[in-house]
Write a structure and sequence with these properties.
Blueprint (H helix, E strand, L loop, with lengths): L3 E9 L5 E8 L4 E5 L6 H16 L7 H10 L7 H22 L3 H4 L8 E9 L2 H13 L4 E6 L27 E4 L1 H19 L4 E5 L6 H11 L6 E3 L9 H8 L4 E3 L10 H5 L5 E2 L8 H13 L4 E2 L9 H13 L6 E2 L5 H6 L5 E3 L2 E3 L12 H4 L11 E4 L4 E2 L2
Parallel strand pairs: 4-5, 4-12, 5-7, 6-15, 7-8, 8-9, 9-10, 10-11
Antiparallel strand pairs: 1-2, 2-3, 4-14, 13-14, 15-16
Helix pairs in contact: 1-3, 2-3, 3-10, 5-6, 6-7, 7-8
Length: about 400
């Protein structure tokens, strides 16, 4: 038995807020897991400290599946982003411990590598189409094989995915939520031209992606997908809110553009219908918000039965701990599609030293035992928590809309 003797939550803000769980075992081996929930970080920290950690002390750290079931079924109030992010942090930390004890990188414990590396996509954006494509060309020069394109919309002051810093995008930008104006009509007139110009400039040897960010109705999404078909996008992401999974049936009837969704999902039940009915092509659930590696592996196996591939969320609201876990997961599953990679700042990387690497559009988790990432607690303490919210969106008539 490898007894859990201590656990603690570390909240730090090296440029943005992260929540990390550290679990220590009786033989001195420790593991870390990401528990960050953007804009609601302290809710997960409290859930871990007040409700989860007391239940971990004395348990066998090797019993990963049993502990996962205990925390999921034993809470009675199942699912939800706070609960599942907390469970994910425990799960990551336990896999980290198991890898360290075995002396193997985590992907080897998950069945070994299915590929030599993990294709990732970068985020090209700009206030204008020309500025976006200048930025996209910069990513192509770095070797990226897949690039997400986001551009400003004429007539709107701000647009999702467009930032001042073209390399480090952080939407959680204010002590209280920023309110942005949105116009679907203006947006729908802009995006097809972006992709037409992108193919003319970048050619056909690079994958092009786009994030709608839940802004459209199903029929609007079907129209946009059809408009984009001539430019063969890799995917159209989060075309419409997916609380009603049947919404995607209508989109499917009107376009063959591949569909991706799921970065805000927290369990397999959020996407069961989407996958069973093959209404999507890529599932974007991520390690930290979907209950950890243990649960995400089940979700990926279910998706594989229905020809759905993975495309895990990988924005900077996920710490390098989660990035490492995602790469081990990506490397080990047969139905991997692509991994989002939004680079962390140097400040964040100093707090979270890691073994994963990027080269020629691909990433690899490295060969360090476990996750291959650590946390410098002394340095983390120098960056105290700073409240930050994601924006909200209103239509031009003042009514609330999905951000």
């Amino acid at each position: 038995m490898l007894k859990i003797i201590a656990a603690k939550v570390i909240v730090t803000c090296p440029g943005r807020n992260f929540v990390t769980l550290k679990i220590v075992t009786s033989d001195g081996v420790y593991g870390i897991g990401d528990a960050t929930l953007n804009g609601r970080e302290l809710a997960v920290a409290a859930y871990l400290k007040d409700h989860v950690i007391p239940c971990l002390i004395g348990r066998d750290a090797h019993q990963i599946e049993d502990i996962w079931q205990y925390l999921y079924r034993g809470a009675y109030w199942r699912r939800g982003p706070v609960t599942m992010s907390a469970i994910a942090a425990v799960d990551m930390a336990l896999w980290d411990i198991k890898g360290k004890v075995a002396g193997l990188p985590l992907y080897q414990l998950l069945g070994g590598a299915c590929r030599t590396g993990v294709m990732v996509y970068g985020h090209a954006n700009g206030q204008t189409v020309g500025e976006t494509l200048d930025n996209a060309a910069h990513y192509a020069e770095q070797g990226y094989k897949a690039i997400r394109l986001q551009t400003g919309v004429p007539g709107l002051k701000g647009t999702y995915g467009v930032s001042k810093d073209k390399f480090f995008y952080e939407p959680a930008d204010s002590d209280l939520p920023t309110e942005n104006l949105w116009s679907t009509e203006k947006y729908m007139r802009t995006v097809p031209g972006l992709f037409e110009t992108a193919r003319e400039r970048l050619g056909w040897d690079v994958h092009l992606l786009h994030d709608v960010h839940h802004r459209l109705t199903p029929i609007e999404a079907g129209r946009l997908g059809k408009d984009l078909e001539p430019y063969r996008p890799f995917w159209m992401e989060d075309a419409t809110p997916a609380e009603n999974q049947a919404n995607f049936r209508l989109i499917r009837r009107h376009t063959t553009t591949p569909l991706a969704v799921g970065e805000i999902f927290n369990s397999i039940w959020d996407c069961k219908q989407l996958i069973e009915e093959q209404l999507i092509d890529y599932i974007r659930a991520t390690v930290v918000h979907a209950g950890g590696i243990t649960h995400l592996r089940k979700l990926a196996s279910f998706a594989a039965l229905h020809n759905v591939r993975t495309g895990c969320h990988g924005a900077t609201d996920l710490s390098p701990v989660c990035m490492a876990a995602a790469l081990h997961f990506d490397l080990s599953i047969p139905n991997f599609g692509v991994q989002e990679y939004m680079r962390h700042t140097a400040q964040t990387d100093e707090v979270f030293p890691h073994a994963y690497t990027f080269a020629d559009g691909m990433m690899h988790p490295g060969e360090a035992p476990g996750l291959g990432v650590d946390i410098d607690e002394a340095l983390a303490q120098k960056h105290p928590y700073k409240r930050a919210y994601l924006p909200v969106a209103r239509l031009e008539d003042g009514s609330m809309h999905d951000w």
